[in-house]
Amino acid sequence: MIIEKANYYGNPNIGIYVYANDKIAFVPKDAEEKLVKLVKSTLNIPVLRISIADTNVINILIVGNNKGILLPHIVREHEYRKIKQEFEGNVAVVETRFTALGNVCLVNDRAALIHPHAYEELAKFVKDFLEVEVVEKGLINDIPTVGSAAYINNVGGLVHPDATEKDLESLLDLFRVRIDIGTVNFGIGFIKSGLVGNSTGLLVGERTTGPEIMRISRVFGNG
């Protein structure tokens, strides 16, 4: 598993701006060419410059896996069409009051965990378009924005350090991948902000320390 440090114009919260699965990555339209090249080489996938609702916080607003991508209702028509054209999978716009889909949903190809208050509005979309086997609602400790508190793919998962042993057991049973607690960017527990990737590689925020990277490496191994 390749792990590289990255930033977006000096901002180490790379997981806010970049979305990736095993098929494609999305970066902001104004992303520096060196970031585009790093994403492409580390994750070994095509990279699409895109905005969501004319903003660059792509990974907060969308959620997806290798089978599908869900977009918030505030997405522009031209953005939807571009994603639909470039991604070989399901693409759907979710008509719900929740727009930060990436913060309220945690998914891989097998399962999904959804913010309890968002569950009724999102569960069917997640089940139908992301084609997961299991959809559950829940918290990570007392954190309802489960998508912000962890990063999960088909290899492993890194979770907020406040997660309890019971949380970890539940996540292991749900996602069926290696799970452990950790931090990014020198102690940040909201993992999504500083970690993005796929089954080939990971990008971490540039402030992520050596010990943090070692823990991440142990969780995700060699894929």
UniProtKB/TrEMBL annotation:
UniProt cross-references to Gene3D superfamilies, sorted A to Z: L-arginine/glycine Amidinotransferase, Chain A
GO molecular function: ribosome binding; translation initiation factor activity
Keyword terms: Initiation factor, Protein biosynthesis
Cited InterPro entries: eIF6
Keyword Zinc part of the UniProt annotation: no
Record's keyword annotation contains Transmembrane helix: no
Any Pfam family the entry gives: eIF-6
GO biological process: cytosolic ribosome assembly
Family: Belongs to the eIF-6 family.
Function in brief: Binds to the 50S ribosomal subunit and prevents its association with the 30S ribosomal subunit to form the 70S initiation complex.
Identification of the protein by name: Translation initiation factor 6
Source species of the chain: Ignisphaera aggregans
Encoding gene, per UniProt annotation: eif6
